[in-house]
Specification:
Two copies of one chain form a homodimer. Chain A has 103 residues and is mainly alpha-helical. Chain A is 62% helix and 0% strand. The radius of gyration of chain A is 14 Å and the shape is globular.
């Protein structure tokens, strides 16, 4: 069974590391308990909508991009990765940062 | 603040209605309480990863497609809808069903 909390956790950790930030920094900016954010990243806790929004804002990553990458990861798990091209336009990627590149 | 539970709820309801199924039918197939599924669809309850997977299976919609549409809806809310083309290949849409068409 594909569990979305595990994909969300991995995506949040990937974005955080690409931004060069520590768990402590992001937890502080998002006003989230450090231990809770750590559990979310490890896929051990469901993330509430409010906290996901706060963490996305702290990371300065738009929510659509987080969910898009979650969708892409699940597509790989569901075995259809080759069917979906990477199509976020280059200028959009450039405007937000290289961490938006989907592959 | 964009709340992902509201987008997930709307997407699940849209897919269910496109499949012509009632809340009761989907709740039964997914072994989820009817009232709970109703609250999820209305964005009033966070959906757990296990229940989201069960509802997706009951609807016969792959998880990646649910999250892709969630991402697309959030992109509209975040004001960048025109930047992301609709690019799920036609043959993939045809293989799963017209409800996968993203717009």
């Amino acid at each position: 069974m594909i569990l979305i909390r595990q994909e969300i956790g991995d995506v949040l950790r990937d974005f955080r590391q690409q931004k060069g930030q520590t768990l402590r920094q992001v937890a502080g900016k998002a006003s989230v308990a450090l231990g809770y954010l750590s559990e979310v990243e490890r896929g051990q806790k469901e993330v509430s909508s409010e906290i996901l929004a706060a963490v996305a804002e702290a990371l300065e990553i738009p929510m659509w991009a987080i969910m898009r990458r979650v969708s892409d990861r699940i597509a790989v798990l569901e075995g259809i990765e080759s069917a979906i091209p990477d199509v976020v336009p280059d200028e959009l990627v450039a405007s937000v940062g290289p961490e938006l590149s989907l592959r």
